[in-house]
Amino acid sequence: MGFIGKLFGKNAAEIPAGPFTARVIFECALVPQNQEKVTAALEEFMGKYSAHIAEDPRVTRASDGNVIELALRCRNKDELMWLNKELESIARRYGLREG
């Protein structure tokens, strides 16, 4: 199972080619001021891509950080991958991801 399949628990071929809503689960590392950094990263992402936000995000605490759940409106798989890459980039800037 590839990245998209792992991300959504299904084969990439099952992801619709046309407009759809995707639920993305995004895990953040535990870092100093974690809650503030998660909030700031989410606000930045939502500010840039508000047209793609299908519903309010949910943030839950985990023992090793936070888990962000986002529902995103996407035109196709490429747009979904692009949005995920943008979220990953923002999370790295806030120290929520390694690398």
What's the overall average pLDDT, rounded? Answer: 84
Termini separation comes to 24 Å
Strand content: 25-35%
- For the secondary structure, the number of strands is 3
Structural class determined from secondary elements? alpha+beta
Q: How would you spell out the order of helices and strands?
A: HEHEEH
Note the total helix count.
3
Strand order of the largest sheet: 1-3-2
- Which stretches of 5+ consecutive residues score pLDDT under 50? 1-6
Can you put this structure into words, describing what you see?
With 99 residues, the chain is α+β, with helices and mostly antiparallel strands. 38% of the residues lie in helices and 30% in strands. The chain has helices at residues 3-8, 34-48, 77-93; strands spanning 20-29, 53-62, 65-74. The longest helix has 17 residues, at 77-93. The two termini are 24 Å apart. The relative contact order is 0.23. The model is unreliable at 1-6 (pLDDT under 50).
